[in-house]
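User: My notes are a mess, but here's the protein and zinc ion's SMILES. Can you give me a structure?
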Amino acid sequence: MYDSEIYQLVEDITSINGVKDGIGLLLEVHDKYKSDPKQFIIKLKHVIDDMCEEKEYCYKCEEFAEPKRHKEPRDYGDTVVYETICEMTCPLCGKTFNNGNE
Ligand SMILES: [Zn+2]
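Assistant: No problem, the inputs look usable. Here's the predicted complex:
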């Protein structure tokens, strides 16, 4: 018996890419990592983390980030002006997503 998560993964990949390309991709991954499966798990997690950062999705809370605005003081000569900063933020845990906009 195989487990249902792996079946789901194979089914999703073959339905997106077609059976020929989907199975080809999966066999490539299988052959590349069969001698060191731990590397697959480590790299899979990196890709998940990067993808979620890019898509602004917090997988711990299963929520997409929302824009959150706050004001930050900036010295401007003798006065202080407040700049409105907008950051994509998980509405539940407060994790922020930079998405390359430093
Ligand atoms: Zn969160």
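Residues 58, 60-61, 63, 90, 92-93, 95 surround zinc ion (CB under 6 Å).
User: Great, I'll file this with my notes.
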